[in-house]
């Protein structure tokens, strides 16, 4: 068996009402001032926002709210928030929302102790040398797993790239997982974020860097998502399905934070940067096509994925059982109503070559279970475009 290192540095506090404890948790970290990162929708429409504000203020904390986070947050947004946090003198950051607010809060917290623009770090011109300020994440979607990962994605609109930054110092100090906060998610968002979590689990399970701990987490998450995602999409008030999806998302985050990701994310980041396709939707769309491509590299693992998703593979040969996994995921995508082709999200045939050239530079591509060439990526994209 190969050597490996497994890290899970975030304290996870799960349960209905867990988010209400954010004020006391900030005080326990020694905070007197808290920088609260979210987005406009959460601030204006979510009942979670006033609840978090009440918890912070009832704990006697001074709070500065930053709600300018957009989907695929930009370099400019991160730098603006980081400067506001520094000027305010916050000792702790709190992030409420999906992956965008949590990723923003990670990089903003890092820039409190490390000088410069986030652009310098995502383009690898500068190294993180000091620990970030403590961060507490409160996810309102079951998808990104960002609440337990050491990675954050920032969009550089100048270069049209979505670039990841990974460092242990970006790891949130605590995650407050409260499934009640997920009940208000509309079906479309429930579907795209849930399939994002499924993509994290599957890519981690078959990754070159996978190991026993990540395998255990990933296959558990795959099974939980297979059993609960369509229930949560069909009935958002199903608190058991919501709870199981919240757990699965966080568990998948623990898996891919260690085993990392592969080709699906490489393509998805390009679709996000070039076409502004939401990250979960891009992952969901590409996942079945990439799974079909990858199946021959790890057929035993893809057979296990099919079984975890409820397939009866008895009597099938290994190849057919492995390919059944992609068919199962494709059916889940159809049931959940996400786009099934690149044409549906506006991708043009003439842009395929650009997507290929951007994908081939993705840092985690060597972690994909099957070696990938530019021609392979082009073939996958054309299949996803013209199907």
How is the topology of this model organized?
Elements: E1 11-14, H1 22-28, E2 33-37, H2 40-45, H3 48-58, E3 62-66, H4 75-88, E4 92-97, H5 99-110, H6 118-122, E5 135-139, E6 151-156, E7 161-166, E8 174-177, H7 187-206, H8 212-234, H9 239-259, H10 263-275, H11 279-294, H12 299-308, H13 318-336, H14 352-359, H15 374-386
Could you explain the architecture of this structure?
The protein is α/β, with parallel strands linked by helices and 387 residues long. 51% of the residues lie in helices and 11% in strands. The chain is built from 15 helices and 8 strands. A 6-stranded parallel β-sheet has the order 1-8-5-4-2-3, with helices on both faces. Strands 6-7 form a two-stranded antiparallel sheet. A hairpin with a 4-residue loop joins strand 6 (151-156) and strand 7 (161-166). Helix 1 (22-28) packs across helix 3 (48-58), helix 12 (299-308) packs across helix 13 (318-336) and helix 14 (352-359) crosses helix 15. The longest helix is centred in the middle third of the chain and has 23 residues, at 212-234. The model has no long low-confidence stretch (mean pLDDT 96).
């Amino acid at each position: 068996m190969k050597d490996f290192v497994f890290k899970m540095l975030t304290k996870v506090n799960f349960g209905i009402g867990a988010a209400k404890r954010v004020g006391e948790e900030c005080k326990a970290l020694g905070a007197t001032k808290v920088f609260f990162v979210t987005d406009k929708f959460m601030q204006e429409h979510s009942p979670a926002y006033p609840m978090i504000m009440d918890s912070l203020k009832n704990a006697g904390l001074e709070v500065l709210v930053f709600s300018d986070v957009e989907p695929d947050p930009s370099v400019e947004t991160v730098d603006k928030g980081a400067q506001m946090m520094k000027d305010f003198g916050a000792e702790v950051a709190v992030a409420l929302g999906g992956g965008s607010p949590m990723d923003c809060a990670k990089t903003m917290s890092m820039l409190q102790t490390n000088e410069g623009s986030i652009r310098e770090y995502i383009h690898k011109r500068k190294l993180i040398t000091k620990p970030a300020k403590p961060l507490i994440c409160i996810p309102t979607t079951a998808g990104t797993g960002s609440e337990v990962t050491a990675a954050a994605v920032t969009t550089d609109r100048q270069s049209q790239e979505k670039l990841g930054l990974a460092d242990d110092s970006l790891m949130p100090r605590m995650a407050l997982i409260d499934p009640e906060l997920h009940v208000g998610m509309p079906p479309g968002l429930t579907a795209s974020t849930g399939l994002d979590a499924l993509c994290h689990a599957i890519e981690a399970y078959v990754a070159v860097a996978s190991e026993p701990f990540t395998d255990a987490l990933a296959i558990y998450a795959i099974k939980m998502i297979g059993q609960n995602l369509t229930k949560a999409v069909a009935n958002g008030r199903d608190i058991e399905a919501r709870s199981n999806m919240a757990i699965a998302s966080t568990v998948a985050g623990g898996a891919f934070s260690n085993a990392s990701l592969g080709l699906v994310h490489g393509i998805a980041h390009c679709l996000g940067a070039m076409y502004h396709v939401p990250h979960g939707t891009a992952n969901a769309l590409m996942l079945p096509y990439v799974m079909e491509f990858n199946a021959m590299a790890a057929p035993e693992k893809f057979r296990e994925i099919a079984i975890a998703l409820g397939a009866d593979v008895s009597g099938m040969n290994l190849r057919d059982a492995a390919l059944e996994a992609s068919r199962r995921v494709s059916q889940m995508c159809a049931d959940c109503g996400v786009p099934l082709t690149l044409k549906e999200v506006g991708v043009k045939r003439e842009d395929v070559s650009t997507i290929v050239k951007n994908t081939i530079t993705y840092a985690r591509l060597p972690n994909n279970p099957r070696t990938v060439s530019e021609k392979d990526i082009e073939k996958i994209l054309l299949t996803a475009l013209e199907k």
